[in-house]
Amino acid sequence: MQTNNPVLSRYEKADASGFAYTEGRTAFARASGEAPSATPAQPATQPSGAPPSGDDLQFQTVTAGGGLRVTLNDVVVKSAIMFGLVVAFAFVGWNLIAAAPGLMLPVFIAAIALGFVNALKKSVSPVLMVIFAVVEGLMLGGISFWYNSYAVINGWDGIVLQAVVATMTTFGVMLTLYLTGVIKVTKRFTQILMVAAVSYIVLALASLVAAMFGVGGGWGFYGVDGIGIIISIAGVAIASFFLALDFEAIKQGVAMGLPERESWRMSFGLLVTLVWIYLEFLRMFAILSGRD
């Protein structure tokens, strides 16, 4: 099944027993010094559940081009690197924006620009991914400082920690639901989620315009009693379900034998979704802090 994740949608599923497999197997044989047979090689039939062996095992660890294939461990390591950078520079951003609020706008623009570049770039650039994580951390630190300051004025302290805990809890719950099969990423599931996401983005933009005219005390539709809470919960839910798309894209990418460098793109997609969830929780807690 093809994923519709906006970040990881470039992955296309290949038939492991068809043309792609045959071509890759032939390329590997030539690189290994073997003489390819006149007829296309066919994958050996393995007993159900039996691990590959011999040449098949060696071939299945590399791509047709000779580079290493991505593994789940690769994704975990790259994710740890990017998340570590985000957290570290969030602390820097917190203090930096507090001392020089004027830096928030250029940092925000840089984070958005780098996000689009990394998402749309055909070839993965680890350097750009690292730079994005650094700038994203600075941006999150600044935004967190602003929201926290607003909440403290209203007598609610600790919303940043609460948003972090809520985000990590959501990640754990969604991963469990995905692995246990409670949530299955089907074509219909993806279509419904994409429609919901587009609708939410349109509503968020309309809310931004309304906020400029003082609606909801400057929060737009999010600050309107009753409706604002419903919209906030909907935003958290939609962002959370996007984690399922990320999990499915990572699963497919590993199964397809994509190049190892694609682990950076998979980690990037996961990071973008978690940042989205965190910001939804942070805004919702900040709004709630201003209510009687």
Could you provide a short overview of the structure?
The chain is mainly α.
List the helices and strands and how they pair.
Elements: H1 19-31, H2 54-59, H3 72-99, H4 104-120, H5 126-153, H6 159-179, H7 187-212, H8 227-256, H9 262-289
Helix pairs in contact: 3-5, 3-9, 4-5, 5-9, 6-8, 6-9, 7-8, 8-9
Give a verbal description of the structure.
The protein has one domain. Helix content is 67%, strand content 0%. The chain has nine helices and no strands. The protein is globular and about 55 Å long. It starts with 18 loop residues before the first helix and ends with a helix. The N terminus is likely disordered.
* Mean pLDDT metric: 81
Q: Report strand %.
A: under 5%
Shape: globular
The tally of helices reads: 9
Radius of gyration from CA coordinates: 23 Å
- Give the beta-strand count: 0
Number of domains: 1
Helix content: 55-70%
Assign the structural class, choosing from mainly alpha, mainly beta, alpha/beta, alpha+beta, or little secondary structure: mainly alpha
State the end-to-end distance. 48 Å
Q: Largest sheet, if any?
A: none
- Taken in chain order, the helices and strands follow as HHHHHHHHH
Low-confidence stretches: 1-9, 11-45
